[in-house]
């Protein structure tokens, strides 16, 4: 499938967004407004951006680290979106892209990871009404800044629909698909360690178990470990779990899990992959800097690091979210993102039209929006 055909396929499959787009073309909730967006630039995002444009928004967008798809950038630019930068893994370069977004003084921000709002607090401007934050990690970043922000910021992640629809059911699927696409390796009988047993980790563990892997769960929270036990998994402390792992997937949102000390415990040929928002869960540069270690790119976006012990470990996607990376990355399923991005569109509409105020600062999606999106999806299934 060509990139253009895929963008058209995804756009057509985003049926909830399609309905909202038709409505927005009539109601024009963003007329005269600019929306600054800093979320993964891939085909599903293009469907969201076109929906916001239909509502009258002038959209200025940049991507996240490593996940920007050039064909999506081209597609959006051809449709009048100001897209800043291209694919990058360089935090300093991305910080400059965020500054370019804020230079345009958008009326609304669509954030993913909290970076845009955090930067806004360092260099505020008049006229920002509020916006949305997509992720768990972003909510954690923004929560301590509620008083300074003092504007409506709705957290998409904290809708139950996003939590189960994307984090639990879609991230695990796309991790399994990406692992096989990156490596072409068998899953049957493989020993997989999942670090982090929250919404995403539960789906990752379940999808790999369903693919006949032996899954061990690691979590810093004993309650999460107990839940994993009740779900039928083996649990162990990280260092113990690593010893016989064929594949380790980190998905905590809680900072570094795997560095130089941990890779010493891995078997020859073990694979490391991160699905958490920040690439710091696997400290690739520390691992590559182990004295005497050598590193080479052995497959597209796969680094193979040979340690002084002679054992080689492989890292997928340089430690960036591997379900959004690598050759032919597809990301999470279209329908799961159609749900989440429909909530984005509705939440931005509510902020733009004053249906929520500063009391709704870093809070979950209003229940009314959840209900409307659920009913719309159910209607499509029953049609
Ligand atoms: N890759 C994707 O497509 C995608 C999609 C959605 C969310 N995410 C990201 O995935 C991460 C997890 O999201 P979630 O919704 O599952 O969060 P969550 O809060 O539901 O779960 C996180 C779990 O990790 C555990 N944890 C935290 N730090 C840990 C550590 N150092 N070691 C072991 N366990 C630790 C917590 O106890 C918790 O059980 C976040 O960074 C989120 O932004 C990624």
Q: Which parts are unreliable, with pLDDT below 50 for 5 consecutive residues or more?
A: none
Task: Catalogue the ligands.
Answer: nicotinamide-adenine-dinucleotide
Helix share, percent: 40-55%
Number of strands: 15
CATH-defined architecture of the largest domain: 3-Layer(aba) Sandwich
Overall residue-averaged pLDDT value: 96
Query: What is the makeup of the main sheet?
Result: 8 strands, mixed
Distance between the termini: 28 Å
Secondary structural class: alpha/beta
How do the strands line up in the largest sheet? 9-8-7-10-11-14-13-12
Polypeptide structure, described:
- Strands 9-8-7-10-11-14-13-12 form an eight-stranded mixed β-sheet.
- It has two domains: 3-158 and 331-382, Adenosylhomocysteinase-like (Rossmann fold, 3-Layer(aba) Sandwich); 168-320, Rossmann fold.
- The protein has helices spanning 3-13, 15-27, 43-54, 70-78, 91-103, 115-122, 136-142, 146-149, 160-168, 170-183, 199-210, 222-230, 238-242, 260-263, 284-288, 334-352, 367-382; strands at 34-38, 58-62, 82-83, 108-111, 130-133, 153-155, 191-195, 214-218, 234-235, 247-250, 271-274, 294-299, 302-306, 312-316, 361-364.
- It is globular.
- The model has no long low-confidence stretch (mean pLDDT 96).
- With 383 residues, the protein is α/β, with parallel strands linked by helices.
- The chain binds nicotinamide-adenine-dinucleotide.
- Nicotinamide-adenine-dinucleotide (NAD) is lined by residues 135-137, 166-167, 171, 195-201, 218-221, 224, 251-255, 257, 275-277, 321, 323, 332.
